[in-house]
TrEMBL record:
It comes from Raphanus sativus (Radish). InterPro entries: UDP_glucos_trans. One of its GO terms (molecular function) is quercetin 7-O-glucosyltransferase activity. Belongs to the UDP-glycosyltransferase family. The lineage of its organism: Eukaryota, Viridiplantae, Streptophyta, Embryophyta, Tracheophyta. Keywords: Glycosyltransferase, Transferase. This is UDP-glycosyltransferase 76C2. PANTHER family: GLUCOSYL/GLUCURONOSYL TRANSFERASES, UDP-GLYCOSYLTRANSFERASE 76C2. It comes from the Eukaryota. The keyword Glycosyltransferase applies.
Amino acid sequence: MEKSNGTRVILFPLPLQGCINPMLQLANILYSRGFSITVVHTRFNAPKASNHPLFAFLEISDGLSESQINDDPTSNVMSLLAQINVNAETPFRDCLQKLLLRVSERVSCLIDDCGWLFTQSVAEGLNIPRLVLSTFKATFLNAYPILPCVRTKGYLPVSDSEAEDSVLEFPPLLKRDLSRLYGEFGEKLDPFIDTIVDTTMRSSGLVFMSCEELEKDSLTLSNEIFKVPVFAIGPFHSYFSASSSSLFRQDETCVHWLDNQEDKSVIYVSLGSVVNITESEFLEIAWGLSNSKQPFLWVVRPGLILGAEWIEPLSEELVRSLEEKGKIVKWSPQQEVLAHRAVGGFLTHNGWNSTLESICEGVPMICLPGGWDQMLNARFVSDVWRVGIHLEGQIERKEIEKAVRMLMVESEGAKIRERMNVLKDEVGRSVKDGGSSVRSIETLANHILSL
Ligand code: UDP
């Protein structure tokens, strides 16, 4: 760590795994530049303070009841975010007021997730500059101002003959991606989106976990749209691992299992921390993996399958067949898994963290996005960078078997892997000395000091 610069930064992650990981990685990045760190967090999905002894942690009430928490509020992320965005405002303001009176250093800024709707007003009321962290690709956040009007444009419902057409306002998205992108929420999302655009424009800067090598033009556009300084400081996990901020116990036995597999032979399967699938979709994936005859490591998060605790929908016959070639775990040390020499492919929901982690390890993907920004990330992977195969939402055993075999054993897969290696190297350069992301960290640190 550099010598302390006498300045404290307050961080406030949304209580979701895909937001907590980058925020704590950002905490490490800033700490290594001499900043003191306070992490304010909700009671629900609280990060484990003991894993981060260098930072101060302050818990605030999120107003969720025990039964709501036990029922897994992430099963409906939009409703969760709406509730805690109301419940947490007063506790957050009180917490910040007390903190400002207590700390000895100068508090230079608050950095929080763009999904918090009240923090800009609270920060303005307390005279603290606020920076926004986007856990989305810049191209996706740039589309926020137009998302409500694209929804009402008359594209939906999309007919079969138009499904392959581009959404002209939002390339490289296809019309077939739109209904999953908006999900069941429709116009209920509009006030959220409007507030996020407004509060981001009133902020003192926008931080992306991304880099020029992936989306230079989009980053320039972010600056033009939101009219604030933009910092693309790279895939955060390239500097600090996400393991210490995992909310679930990581099953390390899968790494030993991987040790006994051939190089690049295993397809890793995970749909992240929020996506849900039906029992029949789960069984189709199971049959597809089994029929592919490729070794696989499959993360089945408890709660992934609607209406099931864990993997009990599998018949004994299917369990026997799966055990011949694969291993199922509840949660994995994903970065370690993707970096393992035995892993040759990733069947993913294309959350932005997972997509970046896969690119950084040069692991080509099979794309099965669940909704929202994942639809766009998957299009970049399959259609723009061409480092993956898109399942086009077809959760059918034959399609899964075909995609796994194409990626892992056929010549098409070898070409995809070659392109992925080139992309990996480009992104890798950005986080090396003198690279675009490292330079951007320097600029961000100076910007924070100047606030
Ligand atoms: N992750 C993990 N173990 C798993 C599955 C996921 O550690 O078994 C981590 C993964 O490395 C990533 C995060 O959880 O950092 C998921 O974030 P992402 O944006 O990909 O998806 P989300 O969970 O937000 O949908």
